[in-house]
Amino acid sequence: MDRTVSPRRLLLSLSLVTATIFAALPTIGRAQTTFFTENFDDANFAARGWYDVTTGTIDASVYSPAGGNSSLNVHWSAGANAPTAPRRHLFTASDTVYLSVWMKFGTASVTWVGSGLPYHPHIFQLLTDADSDWIGPSITHLSMRVETSLFTPNINFQDALRLNTAQINVNLLGTATTHAIAGGNGVQTGSAATSWFDGTDWWNDANYRAASAAFTNNTWHHVEFYVAMNSISGGIPQGSPIAQDLWIDNLIVANQPIASQTSVPAPTNLRVIP
Predict the structure, then answer these.
(1) What local confidence, expressed as pLDDT, does residue 257 receive?
(2) What is the extent of the structural domain holding 249?
C-alpha cells in the first residue's frame, strides 16, 4: 500500500459479543481528542451519525455506574446470527484510538454463554480509511476486533486484503515486499495467527488472548481499549446457542485516554515492522 492505514470508523459488530479489559493503558503527554460519545439515552441513532443499521432497543431500567438513564440492550434470540442494534459510525482518521465503554453480560436468570465457539464473538471492530465505508467487514485491509470468548477477553486482528498470496507462509516481516502482519506472511505479534483459503478468498487473523476470564455474569464492567499504529507504506456464520442479552452504555471513542480515566504503565515488548 502507498498510504498510511488509519482507523476512521467504528463497527459495532453485534453479530455476537465481545470486549477486552486492557490492564495496561499508557499515559500520553498530549490532550485527548474525543471523536464521539454515545450514552444510549434515546433511540435517535441516525441523528447521531450511526448508519447501516440505525435501530436498537434502549433499556431505561438498566444503566451503568457511569451514569445516564438507560443503556443499549443487545438481545439475541436462540439461533439468531445477529440482533438489531446500531451498526456503524464514522470518526476522524487517527493513528491512535482509545475506546472506553461499560458492558454487562447476561442476566440473573440467563447466564451469558456467547457463541459457544472460541473465536466469537466480535463486539467492536475498528476499521480503516483504506477501505470503503461499507466494507465487509470480514475481509479488510485492517480490522482490530475487541471481543470475548465466553468471559475471557481477546483482541483479534486481521488484514487479509494485504496478504501477499504469491508468498503464503513466507515470513515477509521486515521486508519492503507488500505483506500482511496477521498471519499468512508472518505475524507481527499476538498468538494463534493463521491464514486459509476458502475456495474464493484468502483469510487471516491473529489474537491477543487473555490468560484467564475477566468478566462476571450480570455485572457491569468498564472496558478500555487502546491501539497505536506505525505508518505502513508501499468466517463462518454461527447463531446464538440460547436467547441472551448484553447491555452497553457510556461509549467514548477518542485518540487516547485522559487523566480522569485509567492510566497505568504502557505495554512492553512492542515492535515496529516496516
Answers:
(1) 81
(2) 7-254
